[in-house]
Amino acid sequence: MDSSITCAVHAGWPDRTDWKRFFPADLHPSGHEIIRTWAYYLMVRHLALFDEKPYKSVLINGMVLGNDGRKMSKSLGNYITAPEVLEKHGADAARQWAAAGGKTGADIPFRWSDVEYGWRFLIKLWNASRFIERQLRDYKKQKRSTVTLRTIDKWLLTRLQRLTESVTEAMENYEFNKAIEETRLFTWHILCDQYIEAVKHRLYRDEAPEERIPVQYTLHKALYDILHLLAPICPFITEEIYNALYLKHEDYASIHVSNWPEYQEELIDDHAERIGELTIAIINDIRRLKAREKVPLNMSVKEVTILADEEERLESIKEERSDIEGTCKIERLLFKKRVGKEGIELENYEGIALRLVP
User: Fold this and answer.
1) Residues 150 and 260 placed together within one structural domain of the fold
2) What is the pTM of this model?
3) Which of 38, 105, 139, 183 could form a disulfide linkage to 34, CB 3.0–4.6 angstroms apart?
4) HEC profile of 212-255
């Protein structure tokens, strides 16, 4: 009897006078095996009692499968208890597994490796946030219009806008696997592995503190939006980081009552995105060449030559000289027109090559 009026009860009926504020429910989750015995009964009972439908949408979940490929069941002995997972890796890692497990409605296999990947991501996010917090200690929040951003900064913020658009659409379509995967990929590889590594030299230049401000603005904005995109799936770590880094500057007491990031098409910079991708590719390949020559990444190299078969491409790369030199620790960076198959061709960029002198 009580399960068939849960939408009203969750909204506060019969104790709260304002229960209609939360009724009908936006979303009713249900397993496919109880559509008839729950989703249907909810509809009938609420229409009978209140003359109103109880929910706007039903989200049909799949079954959790054991390591033998069959539905997890005590009788089959192929089950893992929830407390085991939560005690080992915490709720946010378990929630990532559930969200990333597959398309809505599909059965989800339980694998410890998937939960562990979520846990490792949380460690990466936590460490990145600690690094950003240290870099923002002397930062005063600024508007974008007052900051002179470099190409690589505009590249990251453009990618961030595209992520916001994609994740928002995915969440609205209940594609939670797409939302979490794209956010994790951006955080781990685009923000941490690529952008942060490419701007550390600016952050560490004490003799030029003005170079820190564009990076600080970009890091502040990027982490803020990432936390919001992650918050529905990873509510605990996002709240902790929000409280530590943003609470004192924001109007919201919790990340979970703050506004969702809005996609702003006017902030998309196609040119910066294109040149930024090229700059990151050059930095990555120079690092690979240093590794091949057994030169540690924190050691400088005497000379790097960037070769391109088109003068226009060469000129666009020259504008990024400072970030390429600073990130890869290059004593002398040269730009030359490419002749034939000269140099080692840049990965995924035909017509651009590199030559390195250790």
Assistant:
1) yes
2) 0.90
3) 38
4) HHHHHHHHHHHHHHHHHHHCCCCHHHHHHHHHHHCHHHCCCCCH
Is a pLDDT exceeding 80 seen at residue 5? Answer: yes
For the chain, how many residues are written?
358
Show the tokens assigned to 34: 């109880």
CA distances from residue 88 to 83, 94, 344 in whole angstroms, order as listed: 8, 10, 47
Boundary-marking domain end, from 44, 61, 78: 61
Tell me the pLDDT band of 158, cut-offs 50, 70 and 90: very high
- The per-residue pLDDT for 289 is 94
Give per-residue pLDDT as tens, 242-280: 999 999 888 899 999 999 999 999 999 999 999 999 999
Question: How many angstroms separate the CA atoms of 90 and 37, rounded?
Answer: 32
**Closest residue by Cα to residue 285 from 194, 168, 202:** 194
Residues 29 and 124 in one domain: no
Q: Specify whether 186 is located in the same domain as 249.
A: yes
